[in-house]
Every structure is written in C-alpha cells, then in structure tokens.
Amino acid sequence: MKYLVIVGVFLIIGGVVFLSYQGISYTTREKAIDIGPVQVTTEKSHTIPLAPAVGITILICGAGLVVMGLRRGNSAT
C-alpha cells in the first residue's frame, strides 16, 4: 500500500506548512476621501488566522497513514 505512505507524507508536509504560518494576510484598498478630482485611498491589512489544532490534526492523520501503509506493505510480503 505505497499510496497510503505517499498520501501520508504529503499530509505531514502540509501539516508542518500549516503550523508554520500564523495566518493568511491580504491587503485591501478603500477610499478615504473623495472630493472631486482629489481622491485619497488607504490600504488595510487583514489576516485570516489559522488554528494550530487543524495543523496538528493533519500531522496526526499523515503519521497514521504512513504507519498503516508500512504495516500493510510488510504483512503482504
């Protein structure tokens, strides 16, 4: 069951990446003043926080798939 090991490794990598980022940031532009030909815009930075529990869950699932894949691979031979 090599595909379980491969999927498990990808999940582990994804979990580590998920845990390494604090959140996803993006910037929006909004008009602050609009008086005739004079326009002033402001940039606001927004952050979407990422829960560490989700990253830990992804890591645990990936590790479980790797262990299951290795056990099934060894029992078949």
Structure description:
The chain has one domain. Helix content is 56%, strand content 32%. Strands 1-2 form a two-stranded antiparallel ribbon. Strand 1 and strand 2 form a beta hairpin. The chain is rod-shaped, with a radius of gyration of 22 Å. The chain starts with a helix and ends with a helix.
Q: How do you describe this structure in short?
A:
The protein is rod-shaped, with a radius of gyration of 22 Å. Helix 1 (about 1-20) runs antiparallel to helix 2.
Would you spell out the secondary-structure blueprint of this structure?
Blueprint: H1 2-20, E1 23-35, E2 38-49, H2 52-75
Antiparallel strand pairs: 1-2
Helix pairs in contact: 1-2
Helical content band:
55-70%
How are the strands of the biggest sheet laid out side by side? 1-2
The biggest beta sheet is recorded as: 2 strands, antiparallel
Count every helix, treating DSSP H or I runs of 4 or more residues as helices: 2
Encode the helix/strand succession as letters: HEEH
End-to-end C-alpha gap: 11 Å
- From the spread of the alpha carbons, the general shape counts as rod-shaped
Our count of domains comes out at: 1
Estimate the strand proportion: 25-35%
Q: Poorly predicted ranges (pLDDT <50, ≥5 residues)? A: none
E-strand count: 2
Q: State Rg.
A: 22 Å
SS-based class:
alpha+beta
The whole-number mean of residue pLDDT values reads: 88
